[in-house]
Structure formats: structure tokens, C-alpha cells
Amino acid sequence: YLRLDKIPHIWCPGCGHGIILNSLIRGIHEVGLKQENTVIVSGIGCSSRAPGYLNFNTLHTTHGRALAFATGVKHSNPDLNVIVLTGDGDSAAIGGNHLIHAARRNINITTIVFNNNIYGMTSGQYSPMTPTDAIATTSPYGNVEKSFDLCNMVKSAGATFVGRGATFNTKQLIQLVSGALSHNGFSFVEALSQCPTYYGRRNNLKSAIDMLKWQKDNSVSVKAYDKLPEEKKEGKIVLGELFRDDSIPEYTDRYAEMVKNVQKRS
Ligand code: SF4
Question: Where is the Thiamine pyrophosphate enzyme TPP-binding domain positioned along the sequence (predicted)?
Fold first, then answer.
């Protein structure tokens, strides 16, 4: 599935994005998607370079607009498997509106957010996913804003598969990607990634390995979280399949049904 023999990647040493890309390939393999029937769409940012390294039909679009392009692709040919690869800045800031409405429509697109808590490509400005107090190029004394819980946001908007994984646990990440790819509806996976070059260095998180350890120490599985006493839940990052509903009709199915009914009447 890879074409790195022809195109060398430009991700920094220790970057988590390659781990997410690897998990995506394994998920695609597990579910058995065909290359000729799969389109992978991205916006702009370090994460959005991922489709360029894959031997699939790919679209590298404009900043924040991957879901708008992907919606057009899916709407014009519902038989295609459509996957969006995006970053936290690309999806939660400039592309936030498209994310909300793709979730609301429950269109059968799988979206994977590479969440490194920062704008990496443009040298480390804070994003809507940067934690409060974290240091970024544009918050040298600490970020005063509160970050989004993107999983909760898309669930509230209407997504019917929502999961959160992390690069320290590839087994779980592959399971989440497979679950999302096999779901008929808007499926969303937030994948925590490490950016040692900007987020890690500015926040004294040391090496990429230390950042993976940080992920592990600060996260908990959704099952274990439910059993925790309230006072221990604060600040924990919850990982796993957070929500799934297979009973809600998918957008392109409903659209086709509507067209059929109109044709019958005329
Ligand atoms: Fe990865 Fe950060 Fe380098 Fe971008 S800047 S490639 S996110 S380590």
C-alpha cells in the first residue's frame, strides 16, 4: 500500500504520524478495502501529507476543507470507501464547521484526526486541541484557552462511531480504525500523536519515547474509566470505542431512497 520507495517522507524523527499511518494500513488490510475503490482525502498540515505516501486514489486539498471535498466524492459515488486524514488544527479550527456538519449528516466517511496538540507544519502555534497552560509559539507564557473534547463534539453533532486511540497502543489503534472503516455512517477516530519537534521540546517532554510514556501514564481505557471514583477521573484521557450506533440511517442511503421515491411518484 505504501509508495515510500518513490517518495521519501519528510516527518521528523520520533514523529507519531508514521505510527498512525501504519495503523491505517493495517486497518484497511484487516477490513479488506480494495485500493481501486478507496479514496483518501487530506487537508493541509504534517498529518495531511500522509495520503501522498499511499498507493491509493488520493486528494490533497486545501486547509480545513478535506471533509468538504470528501463529501463531494462520496455523494457523487457512494460505492467508494472515503477516508479523511487530518490534523487537530485542520479539523478543529479552520475545518471545524465541515466536521460538525459531516457528523450531523452521518455520511459514510471515516475521519482520522492526527492529534499532536499543535500546528506542527507552521512551527508550533497552539491549536484548539492544545491543553490549557501548554507552551506554544503563540502562547509563550502558557495557553489560556480550554481545548475541545473533539470526540464529545462529533458525538453530539451526530457521528455514529467515535473512538480515541494513541500511538503508544497500536493494537487498540488498529482495532479502532478497523471498527471505523467497517461502520456505515460517519466514523471518527482521534489518534493522539507526538510532535517532539515543537510540542515536546517547548513543553520539556524530552524524547518521543518519553512522550509515549506520558500518553500511557495519563490515559485510561473506557471500561476502566467508568469504574474509577469521581475524584480520580479528572484529567484522564479516555481511550477506546467511546460510542457506536449502527441503527441510524446513513446519508447517501437516505438520499438514494429519496430519489427512488421521487422517481416513483413522477
Ligand atoms: Fe511530526 Fe511535529 Fe515534525 Fe510535524 S513538526 S513532522 S508533527 S514531529
Answer: 44-190
**Is 196 a pocket residue for ligand 1 (Cβ < 6 Å)?**
yes
Binning pLDDT at 50, 70 and 90, where does residue 266 land? Answer: confident
Which segments of the chain are extended strands (E)?
Answer: 38-42, 57-60, 81-87, 109-115, 161-166, 187-192, 219-221, 237-244
Nearest atom, ligand 1, residue 47 CA:
7
**Separation CA 118–CA 199 (nearest Å):** 6
ipTM: 0.99
**Is 19 within 8 Å of 167 (Cβ atoms)?**
yes
For helices 96-105 and 150-157, what crossing angle results, to 10°?
A: 40
Confirm if 72 and 30 have CB atoms less than 8 A apart: no
Residue nearest to atom 1 of ligand 1 (CA): 15
Nearest one of 143, 147, 64, 146 to 100, comparing CA atoms: 64
Rg (CA), the chain: 18
The letter for the amino acid at 23 is S
CA angle 21, 137, 43 (to 5 degrees): 35
Backbone dihedral angles phi then psi of residue 66, each to the nearest 5 degrees: -55, -40
Q: Do residues 42 and 59 lie in contact, with contact meaning Cβ atoms separated by under 8 Å?
A: yes
Dump pLDDT digits (tens) for 66-83. Answer: 999 999 999 999 999 999
Instruction: Work out the pLDDT band at 126, boundaries 50, 70, 90.
Output: very high
CA distance 111 to 70: 10
CA of 226 to the centre of ligand 1 (A): 33
